[in-house]
Each structure stands twice: as C-alpha cells, then as structure tokens.
Amino acid sequence: MSSVSKNITSALFASELGAPSEVVSAHEVDLGELPETQVEIEMLVSSVNPLDILVITGNAPIPLNNKEFKLSASDENHGKSSINSTVLGTEGVGRVTKIGAKAKKATNGDLE
C-alpha cells in the first residue's frame, strides 16, 4: 500500500484585475511532491504590500502570472479541483525546511 504525501498550504490569489475586495480570494492548495530542483520554505511572515495592490488593480507594469494550482480536498471550491490564478505576496521571511536533491545553495534552517 503506498501513501500519497500531501503538502497543503494556504495562500491569497488574484485571477483577474480589479478592486482587491472583489478579486482576491484565499485558498488551500496541495503543492504535491517537492521538485528535485527546488526548496521548500516555511513562511514565517508574509504580507500583501503596495506593489501587490498596484498589480491587482492593473496600475503596475507587471501582469498577473496565472498558473494552475490543485486545491486541497478541504478547500471550499464550489466543485472545482484547481484554480488558475496568481499567488499574492512579493515579500516575506521564511525558513528552508526541505531541499530537493538537485537544488543548489540552500541549507535546512536557512532564513530566506
């Protein structure tokens, strides 16, 4: 019997431009297995800052970078299993908790 590892996290998303109160939503997503070339970072502090607001409202020369995210089973997703959206939060402090086999320049416990 094999077990599937779940890597669930919460994030704020915007799928389209507009007023933050209308286009920003919070979701739990399943990140799946860690790719070999990446590191896992436990976010200690994160925020939505003025740059995020400018991007969300279309007032910055940075487009939304929508990607497909698998929603967790417990996320209230109105029957959807995924969301095509942009993760918000361009700043934060986190700790490296897992390192992919081919990732470079990271040590468990590093603050990034």
Structure description:
This protein has 112 residues and is mainly beta. The protein has one domain. 11% of the residues lie in helices and 38% in strands. It is built from two helices and six strands; from the N terminus they run E-H-E-E-H-E-E-E. The protein has a four-stranded antiparallel beta sheet with strand order 2-1-5-4. It has a two-stranded antiparallel sheet with strand order 3-6. The longest helix is centred in the middle third of the chain and has 8 residues, at 50-57. The chain starts with 7 loop residues before the first strand and ends in a 13-residue tail after the last strand. The model has no long low-confidence stretch (mean pLDDT 85).
Beta-strand percent range: 35-45%
* Poorly predicted runs of 5 or more residues: none
Report the sheet with the most strands, covering strand number, pairing sense and barrel closure.
4 strands, antiparallel
Shape: globular
**Helical segment count:** 2
Question: What structural category characterises the helix and strand content?
Answer: mainly beta
What is the count of β-strands? 6
What number is the mean pLDDT? 85
Helix content: 10-25%
- What is the string of helix and strand elements? EHEEHEEE
Distance between the termini: 37 Å
Main-sheet strand order equals 2-1-5-4
Whole-number tally of structural domains: 1
Return Rg in Å: 16 Å
Q: Helix and strand layout, with pairings?
A:
Elements: E1 8-14, H1 20-23, E2 24-30, E3 39-47, H2 50-57, E4 67-70, E5 82-87, E6 91-99
Antiparallel strand pairs: 1-2, 1-5, 3-6, 4-5
GO molecular function: oxidoreductase activity
InterPro entries: GroES-like_sf, Mito_Enoyl-ACP_Reductase
GO biological process, one term: fatty acid metabolic process
